[in-house]
Design brief:
With about 260 residues, the protein is α+β, with helices and mostly antiparallel strands. About 25% of the residues lie in helices and about 20% in strands.
């Protein structure tokens, strides 16, 4: 599933649409729509000008002039593409003024599109932005949680947007085992984790995200942060720091990759 860096990259790649008007909208797949029906959603978008494009966690919010939002969650295989012909996996087509199309493709249809008149309450309930949360707030939140740190980092109520790839990479950089208890991570260890989360997300955004399966931005460009992964999906390979074999363990039913020497509980 695209995580914060990939969603941020996609949001930036469609930001040039700000100021453009949606002439018409066509929805071909009901499974990707959240609430409403295709005709009502198309009518709500028709003639509306795009006022802003923002990422909120793993969601993209397209704010419309005069109020209202097109809310996009890419799911596992969702893509927003600028231009090009619609294909068999195209489930939404927005026709824009001055020519051009914005397509939503999704081969597995796990993504979701929604029109909301107000800022969606379910998104507003998500945790703080990982790139903005102050260290003191982060440290206090850790002390209140007695769960495994990897499971906590995947909890969108704790931090919004962090996912499996970047949780693994941040924990490795901080030297913290994915099975460590969150409330026991204090002082310098907590600071290292806070800094590692910020660093790995910033670097991944600069690299356009990680293209592990079929992720691309709206221009069809792949990211290349996957070449900088130090533990994620490197089970059995030597640790880049100490040479020990990278291991894999399940945490919250998700694969977690770590170095048994470098990362401590």
């Amino acid at each position: 599933m695209p995580e914060l860096p990939e969603v941020e990259t996609v949001a930036r790649s469609i930001a040039p649409l700000i100021g453009r008007r949606i002439l018409s909208a066509e929805f071909r797949g009901l499974r990707v729509l959240r609430g409403g029906n295709p005709e009502e959603m198309a009518e709500a978008l028709r003639g509306r000008k795009i006022a802003a494009v923002e990422r909120y966690g793993k969601f993209i919010l397209v704010a419309l002039a005069g109020g209202g939002y097109l809310v996009i969650h890419l799911g596992m295989t969702g893509r927003l593409l600028l231009g090009g012909p619609p294909g068999k996996h195209t489930h939404a087509i927005l026709t824009l003024d001055r020519g051009g199309l914005l397509l939503y493709d999704d081969s597995r249809q796990f993504g979701r599109l929604q029109y909301s008149r107000e800022f969606p309450a379910r998104i507003g309930k998500l945790g703080p932005e990982p790139l903005e949360v102050p260290f003191d707030e982060f440290a206090r939140a850790l002390r209140r949680r007695h769960t495994r740190i990897k499971a906590l980092l995947l909890n969108q109520d704790f931090l919004r947007g962090l996912g499996n790839i970047y949780a693994d990479e941040a924990l490795f950089r901080a030297g913290i085992h994915p099975l460590a208890t969150a409330s026991r991570i204090r002082g310098e260890r907590a600071r290292r984790l806070h800094e590692a989360i910020h660093a790995v997300l910033t670097e991944a955004i600069a690299a356009g995200g990680s293209s592990i399966s079929d992720y691309v931005d709206a221009q069809g460009r792949k990211g290349f942060f996957q070449f900088s992964h130090r533990v994620y999906q490197r089970t059995g390979e030597p640790c880049v720091s100490c040479g020990a074999a990278i291991r894999r363990v399940l945490v919250a039913q998700r694969s977690s990759h770590f170095c048994p020497r470098c990362q401590k509980r």
